[in-house]
Amino acid sequence: MAEIELRQVAKKFGDLWAVKPMDLTIYDGEFVALLGPSGCGKTTTLRMISGLEAVTEGRIFINGKDVTWLSASQRDIAFVFQFFALYPQMTVRQNIAFPLESQGMKRAEINQRVAEVVKLLEIGHLLQRKPPALSGGDKQRVALARSLVRKPACFLMDEPLGALDAEFREVMRAEIKRLHLAQHATTVYVTHDQVEAMAMGDRIVVMSAAEVQQIGTPAQVYHDPANLFVANFIGSPGMNLVPGKYVGDEVHLRGGSVYPTPPAWRPTLAARWQRDDVIVGFRPEAAQVSETGAIRGMVYASDLHGSYTMLHVSLNGELRPNGNGEDTIVHIRARRDVHYVIGSLVRFDLNPEMVRFFDPESEKAIAKEVRG
Amino acid sequence: MTTSEAVAGGEPLRIKARRQINDRAIQQLFIMPTLVLLILWNVFPLFYSLFLSFTQYSHSGKAPPVWIGTGNFDALLNDPKIWAAFAVTGRYALLSVLSQTLIGFGLALLLRAKFKANGLLTTLILIPMMLSPVIVGMFWRLIFNPLMGIFNYMIGFWNPTTAPIWLKDHALISVVIVDVWMWSPFVMLLCLSGLKAIPDYIYEAAEIDRASPWRQFWRITLPHVAPLLLLAVLFRTIEAFKAFDLVMGLTGGGPGNVTETVSVALYRMVFQGQARTGMASALAYVVLIVIIAVSNVYIWYLNKMKEA
């Protein structure tokens, strides 16, 4: 069990920042997902925590102990690789026993420990097989068993489900979550799949372009994204972001609609927002289709998602992308039992609780002032 | 219409017929010369020598081969000189293959590391392998020369009067040294390809699993390379049992019969005075059987390793 602390940790490859200085504390027993598109530095961060990669700057602490310059083998961590990294010449049993044998543990204890994890992961029938003969899901089970068997201070997982089929991924996601709850071990989990991060993480670290964009619970990064990148990256589709002009207590949205700002936001916007341009952000489920809605647009496309219909609405009333990068197509959730004709007019309001405002220049979210 | 159709239909038919002959004929024309050469130079001698091995025959005499059954084989197996030749060959093969394996594998481990002149160094190391064995034998005779050869100076004997005369005092070791110099790169090349196929993350996993470098070598590196290493050993063992050109170039089998390998003994039997063609054919078959037997042990082991 362990707490991991990163203080101004950074990595440079040549002149290129792989990870810009970042601070992060992962608490004992916490499951933290490092999320971001490929090349954002999330794997490098994980490898620095593991000791497989040396830091360029900063310090890393595990349980308060400075491990910055300790090798991976000295850090008491387990690492689960995307491509499993099982030893192909050894049987499953030998693979699992390998870390224990490396420590020079007694045979009886090794047998007992192996039996424990084998039971936990239900891989008893695979013990005499060799890795090349296993399915992707079974390989990852064995890799998990090998990492669990040593009872390390923390688990580091580098896209452990990335190499699996969609079917196995669902199963293994649940399995990793179950293991985490059972072991309550500190876990850092790298993924580019936001669904995975949302489903598994106690907290999510969203990274992009070598920088931490936001650290928060899944609900925080979903509902209160710190900036436009997070707003767009989290959720599928991402948050609708519509540029507009702020006039009085209204925002004149691109496309022509006039959106009256929610009263709770007015002091913030009036007092602190001196410029006239602003970006209005809202999730598809924040929209409520109604005859009297303030925002209007034209149905561009509609997809039935089973329990709801996802409407693509063109705010400027054009049914073709105009190609100048000023398309204002938003995604809104509508009732599944109403048929929307493409090209018809639709009006909607926004749930005032779920509207967010962003600064177009800094791309950061505008914080709502709490009165009192 | 009907006439033009007939003409139109008849024309391609004729072309097709001509092509049919051509295709198969050309195929066979290309294969034939090779086939004829193979039969003349390989297949025929193989069976002819098998026949000769059961006869008393000398290619220099006028007498036709006389069938004597297993007489040649009886004589060979009771000849202490042949047993001595086999002993020399065995010692030579063991020393040479063992050293090549160790040195070749060691070189491969060193060259696996990523450094600047890696490619250049690898190419340079491979050069001995590309030379003709007879030439290698000739210039190593110069290198071993006690007066002007560089070898003794390199290993620290500065006084030619007290330095060992390699090709006389340690003739078999000399041949082994040259063979190792020449063929270690071959073992290295095979091992290197095996080593480079081991993905980095396997070693990272081993590092995470706290395996010492020693343990990583025995449990990961060696098992990964073992099949290729064994293949290299197989090739080199077969070659060592046939050792002829290098030995002839260096010592000619001497002094006396100290470096007389089976192949050299065979050569001497036919071409140096004795001209015992029938007996030599029998010996050639004995060598062939020994090589097949040894190879099969390796191949059996190789297959077992692959299954496991």
Task: Name the features.
heterodimer, A: 372 residues, alpha+beta, Rossmann fold, OB fold (Dihydrolipoamide Acetyltransferase, E2P), 2 domains, six-stranded mixed β-sheet, five-stranded antiparallel β-sheet, 9 helices, elongated, B: 308 residues, mainly alpha, MetI-like fold, two-stranded antiparallel sheet, 13 helices, 2 strands, disordered N terminus
Protein described:
The complex is a heterodimer of chains A (372) and B (308). Chain A is an alpha+beta fold and 372 residues long. Chain A has 2 domains: 4-232, Rossmann fold (3-Layer(aba) Sandwich); 237-358, OB fold (Dihydrolipoamide Acetyltransferase, E2P), CATH 2.40.50. Chain A has helices spanning 42-50, 92-102, 107-121, 136-148, 166-183, 194-200, 218-223, 228-233, 266-272, and strands at residues 4-13, 16-26, 31-35, 57-62, 65-66, 77-80, 154-158, 186-191, 203-208, 211-216, 240-247, 250-253, 258-260, 277-282, 287-289, 295-304, 309-314, 329-334, 345-350, 355-358. In chain A, α3 (107-121) packs across α4. Chain A is elongated and about 75 Å long. The model of chain A has no long low-confidence stretch (mean pLDDT 88). Chain B has 2 domains: 3-52; 77-307, MetI-like fold (Orthogonal Bundle), CATH 1.10.3720.10. Chain B is mainly alpha-helical. Mean pLDDT of chain B is 85; it is low at 1-10. The N and C termini of chain B lie far apart (73 Å). Classes of the chains: A alpha+beta (372), B mainly alpha (308). The interface between A and B is medium-sized, with 23 and 17 residues.
